[in-house]
Amino acid sequence: MASAEAELLAGIAFYSEQADNLGSRFYQAVFTAVSILNQFPDAGYQLPANFRRVIVKTFPYSVIYKEYPGEIVIFAVAHHRQQPGYWQQP
Q1: According to the 3-state scheme, what is the secondary structure of the chain?
Q2: Is residue 90 a contact partner of residue 77, using CB atoms and an 8 Å limit?
Q3: What's the pLDDT tens digit per position in 22-55?
Q4: Given 9, 23, 57, 69, which is the most exposed site by the fewest CB atoms within 10 A?
């Protein structure tokens, strides 16, 4: 299972190669999605096994997370073409 941080870094690297500042824009869009889920953890779309999803604006990615007492754990920065639920695989 790829870590969410590794997925984020891979996305930044990919978009940085595509156009100037696009990697930075991707990072900012993910940061905004994470800020929203931190403020409103129940706002994300409910997925199986108590996972939630917040869509990253402008990019084909979602932030996949779970809310636990006192914390939010991000499991994936998932491209929309990835197999659904891959973040649950051992």
Answers
A1: CCCHHHHHHHHHHHHHHHCCCHHHHHHHHHHHHHHHHHHCHHHCEECHHHCEEEECCCCCEEEEEEEECCEEEEEEEEECCCCCCHHHCC
A2: no
A3: 999 999 999 999 999 999 999 899 999 999 999 9
A4: 69
Asked if 59 contacts 26 with a C-beta cutoff of 8 angstroms, the reply is yes
- At 76, the amino acid letter reads A
C-alpha–C-alpha distance, residues 11 and 51, integer Å: 22
Residue 10 has pLDDT above 90, yes or no: yes
